[in-house]
């Protein structure tokens, strides 16, 4: 069973209803009762306008479908320089490894195809996200910085 409770509603600052998957909107008090009896929680942060998942609780490794769609829109191809493999054919990689405390989030996710995934994880190549543009910048083992190829739009 999954219940979605908008954070502002939960904090008493909004009036958007909670929803019970497979059922629909439910009163906040009912949602609080059901959630209070839950044996586990997974926090999912969504965009307030679009509802797209932008971050998932640390306990969730797999990238949700709507986060994949957003990453595919932001990065239509593999983010390794010069690679044109479509994002749909790539792995969705945690830039900071999950095992090193990386989160499942748009800010830590990027599409990498099979051959480029181990290059990032097992060599001295490094990637970082430009905070101003959101684009990925790669640094080669020799220190040369290469931006990801721009999207075709």
Explain this structure.
This protein has helices spanning 7-10, 28-36, 65-74, 116-122; strands at residues 3-4, 18-20, 24-26, 44-46, 53-56, 91-94, 104-105, 109-112, 126-129, 136-139, 145-147. By secondary structure, it is an alpha+beta fold. A 3-stranded antiparallel beta sheet has the order 1-2-3. The chain has a 3-stranded antiparallel beta sheet with strand order 4-5-7. It has a 3-stranded antiparallel beta sheet with strand order 9-10-11, with no helix packed on it. Strand 4 (44-46) and strand 5 (53-56) form a beta hairpin. The protein is elongated.
- Report mean pLDDT, rounded to a whole number: 82
Poorly predicted regions: none
Q: Structural class of the helix and strand makeup?
A: alpha+beta
Number of strands: 11
Helix/strand layout:
Layout: E1 3-4, H1 7-10, E2 18-20, E3 24-26, H2 28-36, E4 44-46, E5 53-56, H3 65-74, E6 91-94, E7 104-105, E8 109-112, H4 116-122, E9 126-129, E10 136-139, E11 145-147
Antiparallel strand pairs: 1-2, 2-3, 4-5, 5-7, 6-8, 9-10, 10-11
For this entry, give a set of tags:
elongated, 3-stranded antiparallel sheet, 20% helix, alpha+beta, 153 residues, 4 helices
